[in-house]
Amino acid sequence: MRIMGLDVGSRTVGVAISDELGWTAQGIETIQINEDAKQFGYNRVTELVKMYDVTKIVVGLPKNMNNTLGPRAESSKKYAEILVKRLELPVVLWDERLTTAAAERTLLEADVSRKKRKQVIDKLAAVMILQSYLDANK
């Protein structure tokens, strides 16, 4: 039983996957999306769900610090709704406040170059979202 974590942004979707026991999260990929061209990466997510035999998806919900939902959170909710319809799997929205900032800090502390940070930040944020969910649901 594997769980997938997604960090949905305006240009990319970071993807993480749990181990089979649901203890740890590993980043697997960053999917490029183009909102203007209506290309959101759903087909690639579907492929990964099948490839890893995913039974549940956790989508990061970027709430504001005052617990309200802004435009990015609404986009994440819509993304989750579409995944439910397409995949017929349970999709959980998980509070992801500050995960991208934490991922950025982690990469800076590891002295990762700006170019490489841009390539992996969303994948690392997806790992943090999924690991937070796994830890809370042990």
Number of domains: 1
Anisotropy-based shape = globular
How are the strands ordered across the major sheet? 3-2-1-4-5
Helix-and-strand structural type: alpha/beta
The radius of gyration computed from the alpha-carbon positions, rounded to a whole number of angstroms, is 14 Å
What does the model show?
The chain is α/β, with parallel strands linked by helices and 138 residues long. The protein has one domain (2-136): 2-Layer Sandwich (Nucleotidyltransferase, domain 5), CATH 3.30.420. Helices cover 45% and strands 25% of the residues. It has a five-stranded mixed sheet with strand order 3-2-1-4-5, sandwiched between helices. A hairpin with a 6-residue loop joins strand 2 (12-18) and strand 3. Helix 3 (99-109) crosses helix 4 (114-136).
Fold blueprint:
Elements: E1 2-8, E2 12-18, E3 25-32, H1 42-52, E4 54-61, H2 71-87, E5 91-95, H3 99-109, H4 114-136
Helix pairs in contact: 3-4
List keywords for this structure.
about 140 residues; alpha/beta; Nucleotidyltransferase, domain 5; about 45% helix; globular
Produce a short descriptive summary:
This protein is of the alpha/beta class. It has helices spanning 42-52, 71-87, 99-109, 114-136, and strands spanning 2-8, 12-18, 25-32, 54-61, 91-95. The model has no long low-confidence stretch (mean pLDDT 86).
